[in-house]
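In line with agreed milestones, work has continued on tokenised descriptions of protein folds. One protein thus recorded appears below exactly as we store it:

>
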Amino acid sequence: MKYINQRFIDQKRKEFLELKQGRMSVTEYEREFVRLSQYAQECVSTEVTMCERFIEGLNEDIKLLVGILDINEFIELSKEKKKADSEARDERKRLMSKLSQPSMKRFRDASNHSNVSFGHPSRDCARQSVGPKAQFLTESSVGSVKSNKLDCR
């Protein structure tokens, strides 16, 4: 490896230490994790520490699925995280489809109403909707590196 500016290496090490999955897929997060880990090899010197650091950066929903497994080899972790990513994506799809489907009761009630209204007109009621935008757990602030100190833990 040719000489690389120490400032560049320090910046990449800092990126690695602060790396979180965020909006990346688990596969994208893994790719970035492996790419940046070469700049912080002292922080992932064993398979166990590499697995711990990888899990630490996962989103909470996936971390829960992967964290229950006792995995100490990065290759095995990589296989399991792909399963967890798929399960989390399926769960989000199920939730989104539930939120976006109108209930049949609401449809029947609306079709049975006549033009005559009793009580108060429904147009005066405030509309409340549960949109398809559901909020999911994203990255945890636990373990995030906030200081300028480049430390592995």
Notes: The CA atoms of residues 61 and 137 lie 7 Å apart. The mean pLDDT is 68. The two ends are 27 Å apart (CA to CA). The chain has six helices and no strands.
